[in-house]
Specification:
Radius of gyration: 16 Å
Structural class: alpha+beta
Helix content: 25-40%
Number of domains: 1
Amino acid sequence: MKIEVSRILKTVRENLKNGKYIPLPDKDSKIIHKFYAEQVGLPLDGGEEYLHNEFETLISRGYERIVLGDYGPYIEMTKDQVVLENIEQRWPGKAKSGIKYIWMETLDKERTKVYLQCNTVPYANYRIGYFYVDPRLVFYVSPKEWEKMIKIY
């Protein structure tokens, strides 16, 4: 299994390097999705956890689910869950037609990338109108823990 995962991750890295977001073969996709699921550390079917970045900028109050795509796991959030006042569009203005997502970032020095999905893609089950963040870029705490954290300041 480790050899298979290593081989698939190598393919993923090469595809990313070359800007090729093509679906993996079904067998490889199943293997890598299982690997990603084991790495995330959050329930796959959503939760109340608050998500923040290294600068403790609150990104989301809860999340819908973890999407396991061929190119990594992503945390899915609704517009109501995302703390919109803490993020902005990286390149302001009207989005071009046909784009996959709008690149947004937190307003702090970290500039944590948050996607707003605009179109579907063949390599992951992203939903149009939902927000996504890489779980490796955020920390998560319970709502009670968040309240304790902000009282310190």
